[in-house]
Amino acid sequence: MRNDHERLKRALLHEMPESLKLKINACLQQENITAEAYQALIGELRARKTLTSPRDAINWYPSINHAACTRCDLCISNCPKGVYAYDGDKIVVREPYNCVLLCSKCMRQCPYGAITFPDKNEYRHYIVYI
Length: 130
Ligand code: SF4
Ligand code: SF4
What we know:
By secondary structure, the chain is of the alpha+beta class. Helix content is about 35%, strand content about 15%. It has two domains: about 1-50; about 55-125, Alpha-Beta Plaits. The structure holds iron/sulfur cluster (2 copies).
């Protein structure tokens, strides 16, 4: 529930119609909101989310510092989008444009701090809710 709450708060950083903003704010202010109500609103946001440019024109994807990477494989096994792969004995970013825009889960999970992303604030305008 806490994650859902944070997700809704983050959605407010993007452009969207005023009516949707009001709906999110009303949800955030309710004290006894149910998990179902959160999920319904998150589902609506997912359906209304759109990119302002083609995904392959947006250079949001991870970079690996190979000097720090120990090839623990966590990034390969945890990324649901198949962004990482082995190239010989090195882990590489094989499918950069499969990376979900503004996701940085693998950076937080890398135990060796070997993954970096650009500044999210420079990429928020690529996502809007219609
Ligand atoms: S999680 Fe980090 S250390 Fe592990 S393989 Fe990926 S980049 Fe390398
Ligand atoms: S940020 Fe998310 S989608 Fe992108 S590579 Fe990492 S885990 Fe995969």
